[in-house]
Amino acid sequence: MKKLLSLSLALACVLSLAACAGGEIEATIAPFPEFTATDFEGTVFTNEMFRDYEATIVNVWSNGCGSCIEEMPELEEYYQQFQEENINLISVAISAGDSQEERAKSQEILLAKGVTYTSLIPDTESDFYKEFLMEIAGYPATYIVDGEGNLVGAPLMGVVKPQEDSLLHRLELAQK
């Protein structure tokens, strides 16, 4: 009886995974949330930045997230690689808006990891911070945004490199 129950549970798990994997990811009609944020040099950015690229990779990270920090060199490689394809990569340093100390720590991390892509500091009083960033279940979280400012598929949760196939597929969809 135990063997039959175990086999049934295993089959149910496999079928549920197959059902999830079989669906095609499509560009959503939901726009990326409206935002205004500055980078570490004080330059102001808004959603208008998405219009300059066929797609933008948006990586949200935290100072206390070791895997966020460790993946930065890989993200820098993607940034350099995708520039020729008019694909941008930015990050949102979610901790940087908390205090001057956290901002300095974020900037120190970016410098130590050799990051050259734009990293935004969110305003902790904004709706973007309160209603979008604070709702993210874990870090890093990476979103793909098309040139119209729409999200493409669900966010990639965790380090991007092991999910490169999904990243490339969503970028391809964003460019259509």
Features of the shown structure:
seven-stranded mixed β-sheet, 23% strand, alpha+beta, 6 helices, 176 residues, two-stranded antiparallel ribbon, single chain, disordered N terminus, globular
The stretches of 5 or more residues where confidence is low (pLDDT under 50) are: 1-25
Strand order of the largest sheet: 3-2-6-5-4-7-9
- Quote the beta fraction: 15-25%
Largest sheet: 7 strands, mixed
The coarse silhouette is globular
Tally of alpha and pi helices: 6
Mean of the pLDDT scores? 86
Give the end-to-end Cα distance, rounded to a whole number of Å. 52 Å
Task: Tally the beta strands.
Answer: 9
SS-based class: alpha+beta
Assembly classification: single chain
Characterization of this structure:
Strands 3-2-6-5-4-7-9 form a seven-stranded mixed beta sheet. Strands 1-8 form a two-stranded antiparallel ribbon. 38% of the residues lie in helices and 23% in strands. It has helices at residues 2-22, 66-70, 72-82, 100-112, 127-132, 164-174; strands at 27-31, 36-39, 44-46, 55-61, 87-93, 118-121, 141-146, 150-152, 156-157. Mean pLDDT is 86; it is low at 1-25. It has 176 residues and is α+β, with helices and mostly antiparallel strands. It is built from six helices and nine strands. The longest helix is centred in the first third of the chain and has 21 residues, at 2-22. It is globular, with a radius of gyration of 18 Å.
